[in-house]
Amino acid sequence: MKSREEEYREIFMVEALEYYDAMSRHISELEKNPADAAALNELFRLMHNLKANARAMGYPAISEVAHRMETIFGLIRDKERTFEGNVVPVLFTGVDTIGEMIRAVGAGNELPSADTLLANLDRLVNGEEPILEDQPEADDDDANRKLELSDLVYIQIKKLDHLMNLVGELIIDRDRILTLSKESDSPALQATAAHLFRISDELQYSIMDVRLVNVGSLFNKFPRVVRDVAAAEKKDIALEVDGQDIQIDRNILQIITDSLLHLVRNAIGHGIEAPAVREQAGKPAQGQLTLAAQTERDNVLIQVSDDGAGINVDSVRRKAVERGLVSAEAAQQLDDDAVRAFLFEPGFSMAKEITDISGRGVGLDVVKLAIDSLGGQLRVSSTLGKGTTFTLVLPTSIAVKGALLFELDARSYAIPLMHTDSVVSLQPEDLHVVGGLLLAEVQDENVPVVDLRRLLHNGDGPLPPANRHELQGRQDIIIVNYNNRKLGLIIDRFLRQQSIVIKPMSKPLDTIDLFGGVTLLGSGQVCLVLDVPALTRLFLAKRP
Amino acid sequence: MADTDNATNEKKTTKQEPLIQLIVFRLGDEDYGIRIEQVKEVTLTPEIARMPKTPDFVKGIANLRGDIITIIDLEERFQLRSAGTEMPAVSYTMAIEGKEYTIGIVVREVPQPLSIPASIIEKAPEFIQDINIHDKYIEGIAKVNGRIIVVLDMLKLLTPAEIMQLPAKS
């Protein structure tokens, strides 16, 4: 994994070499037509940018040359000098020297001395004649000059998306070939298939790797955001950023950009109190906001933490009852995590009054949807008076997801592992009927259980009340978890755990949100991927 | 092929009249035609995965060379099949390329190409509505050697609204 400095240095190199190429081009144009104002302006601008970049990166020698060159191009632009006579070779030497210096930085060599050049540039600025040395070797240098291309390429993300899709298809076909080869009796075919497996695996990971960017490329935009929002809200905020080196798929970072912005604005606007209020509460006047990234197994966790007022669980509970999301009795039974989960309910936060619940809310459901669309999770933890932490659990890469495959009515289905809590097999007597719902005790927790077949194929009406006598023999149950709600799904048979490439549901069936997409199994069979958030919503809407 | 010969003869008699090519298939007891440019390919019906929460005539989704397409049964959609009869075990699927997506239509027999002069397609009469077909999908009716072919405009039939909202009406 590259360090940030290394990454910055590479970017500097790419830009500097581009500047150098453009300078060479423009100065040649200027030589042909000394009155070319556009070329002159470009040269002035390029020198100025290179000066700033080189200074920021700690290359004063390059910055110094660029600075004097900029001065002279400025004088030429202001008609105080003309691009003719001895000025021309000095400036060409200047551009060449810049090129050599940049290449030396790239190769990690010592920078060539530019003293003669700097002296000549000074003479030009002061209106003196430059001292041109006869350098026959220099001509040799020119003739033998190597043309160099940058070591880095810019690629449009859509080209990478295309590659990613292609490799996804390849993986599917590969799995098919592997299955077919195992059925055949040809050892040669099996060996080739095994090789194909390894190669395409590596290809897939390489392409995923190419798409990874540092979380820092997003985090680094936040100091400014925090400063502006804090100023507008009249708050004093210190921002701490951590884990910029963590890598994640560029498109995932793109999708969470708005969510992160939202959470940061919320934290400053509503989470962290005004300085006077903080001092009264015995906290330092300056609020602390932390953006942190870390990896956890295959996931990336991004946390937005503040040391503000925290979320008042009782207010949220009251609000949820007022809005009819839960009955007053049931609300008393819910633990704090379950209550805070209401904050992510669509529309819950739309009400203006919510601001008295430390104002969490405006559009948290939108944040939740964005994270859901990635197959991620949004969690919140909070201590009243101490602060709030939002955690975004994100996949590292969009394309490949771990999934649990199971069978229902002789068809294969998949559930992303991200949303599966556990799998259990229970006898009918382990299940209890409460209020028309089946309940199972799993890890000391009562979890509602529903027959997935019923849930999927029951038409539009509510589910019929559960009846334990319909259950015959051992029941295989997948416990899924969404928004702190657990739900058990009775299925026919567990199959296996597998990495799958999810294809989005094609039109016109993409309006059916129960399925996050489809995947093709090694046999070529189409396998529907269940969307746990939508399934949970369907269950809540249909429960008897 | 006989159909092609017919078409060539007609072409001569009608002097350079523009020909259109149809893919003709059977639904219930009638012949239907789709302009060939709307048909991407014809294949043996692949294995179909049933999609819950869709109208009955949407058979499900299938893998067609790596593309996941929706498969629909027009006999069921138009109620052209007497109750109880099912599609045969071996059927064919025409992949129809719409504006935004491809859809598969299952048919019992292998669809056949047929060239006809554009002018013999007559506008559909009003009474067609009586047999449960919304007339806007019907581009017209062609009479070829005594056969009647209902020419469908698939692009109008395959809009997402048509496919997904129809069950609400029934």
UniProtKB/TrEMBL annotation, chain A:
Domain CheW-like: 400-541
SUPFAM superfamilies found in the cross-reference section: ATPase domain of HSP90 chaperone/DNA topoisomerase II/histidine kinase (SSF55874), CheW-like (SSF50341), Histidine-containing phosphotransfer domain, HPT domain (SSF47226), Homodimeric domain of signal transducing histidine kinase (SSF47384)
Record-annotated HPt domain positions: 1-105
Signal peptide: none
PROSITE patterns according to UniProt: CHEW, HIS_KIN, HPT
Entries under InterPro entries matching the protein: Bact_Chemotaxis_CheA, CheA-like_dim, CheA-like_homodim_sf, CheW-like_dom_sf, CheW-lke_dom, HATPase_C_sf, HATPase_dom, His_kinase_dom
Modified-residue entries (Phosphohistidine), positions: H48
Entries under SMART domains matching the protein: CheW, H-kinase_dim, HATPase_c, HPT
EC number: 2.7.13.3
Location of the Histidine kinase domain: 159-398
Enzyme class: transferase
PANTHER family membership: CHEMOTAXIS PROTEIN CHEA (PTHR43395:SF10), SENSOR HISTIDINE KINASE CHEA (PTHR43395)
Main function: Involved in the transmission of sensory signals from the chemoreceptors to the flagellar motors. CheA is autophosphorylated; it can transfer its phosphate group to either CheB or CheY.
Name by which UniProt lists this protein: Chemotaxis protein CheA
Organism: Hymenobacter defluvii
From TrEMBL, chain B:
InterPro entries given in the database record: CheW (IPR039315), CheW-like_dom_sf (IPR036061), CheW-lke_dom (IPR002545)
Organism: Hymenobacter defluvii
Domain annotation CheW-like: ranges: 19-163
Gene3D superfamilies: CheA-289, Domain 4, SH3 Domains
Source superkingdom: Bacteria
Any Pfam family matching the protein: CheW
Protein name in the entry: Chemotaxis protein CheW
Stored SMART domains: CheW
Organism taxonomic ancestry: Bacteria, Pseudomonadati, Bacteroidota, Cytophagia, Cytophagales
